[in-house]
């Protein structure tokens, strides 16, 4: 196709605007790329318009890939196996998948930002992979976990600790799911104290920037016992702790406030 008669600098400026960043409403500080599907489609169309446009459009798409579902993640994993574009990836946004294990086995030398939305870490990858300090996580400085599900708070910390150079952590609406009964589930989720194995700092200091931690008690008609236990073993987290419960999976979540917290 014939190249555009407009100056290439102007065309690239328009393409750059597709990839604008905005301040995350969850953290108040974290800059994240817009998730507008039309913007993504527009950049893809630019890669096919002409060679002059293709270079910039492909660069923008590869700089911060957005993978909104499992199918897109599978296609991305196939594309990067032999792609030279690994070196220009600065950030990744993953959403609504439990198939991130294969992605974590890759190495991106300049990956700095990992944003996770609705990832079910309780279904994969195995925690032993995260505890290996994989190269995937070694360069990450910004980690965001929103609406993600873990087996326990300790499992969530395994993801955090995998990022050895982390400087910014944003967490919101984390869910914990388990198959235990009564207070055994509470011990599995939060342990028996604020001490953390392998760290000199207690849990509240490791999560000093946490604004809210919601623990959901599923299939629980009377959440008082479990909530009281969690409240007792995490005194340093009481200012951010929130509880929700439901008696059946088909019902909506209800907030629960301990009498001592009122």
UniProtKB/TrEMBL annotation:
Protein's recorded name: F-box domain-containing protein
Organism: Trametes pubescens
């Amino acid at each position: 196709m014939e190249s555009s008669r407009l100056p290439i600098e102007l065309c690239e400026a328009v393409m750059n605007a597709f990839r604008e960043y905005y301040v995350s409403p969850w953290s108040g500080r974290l800059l994240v790329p817009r998730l507008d599907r039309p913007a993504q489609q527009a950049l893809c169309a630019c890669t096919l318009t002409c060679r002059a446009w293709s270079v910039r459009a492909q660069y923008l798409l590869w700089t911060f890939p957005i993978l909104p579902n499992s199918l897109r993640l599978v296609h991305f994993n196939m594309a990067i196996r032999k792609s030279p574009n690994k070196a220009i990836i600065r950030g990744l946004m993953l959403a609504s998948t439990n198939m991130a294990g294969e992605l974590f086995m890759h190495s991106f030398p300049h990956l700095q930002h990992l944003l996770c939305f609705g990832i079910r870490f309780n279904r994969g990858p195995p925690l032993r992979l995260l505890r290996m300090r994989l190269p995937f996580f070694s360069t990450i400085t910004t980690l965001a976990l929103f609406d993600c599900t873990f087996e326990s708070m300790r499992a969530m910390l395994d993801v955090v600790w995998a990022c050895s150079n982390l400087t910014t952590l944003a967490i919101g609406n984390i869910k914990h799911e388990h198959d235990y009964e009564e207070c055994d589930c509470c011990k599995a989720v939060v342990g028996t104290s604020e001490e953390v194995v392998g760290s000199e700092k207690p849990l509240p200091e490791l999560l000093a920037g946490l604004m809210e931690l919601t623990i959901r008690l599923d299939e629980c008609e009377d959440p008082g016992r479990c909530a009281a236990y969690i409240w007792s073993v995490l005194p340093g987290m009481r200012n951010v702790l929130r509880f929700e419960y439901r008696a059946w999976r088909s019902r909506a979540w209800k907030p629960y406030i301990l009498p001592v917290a009122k």
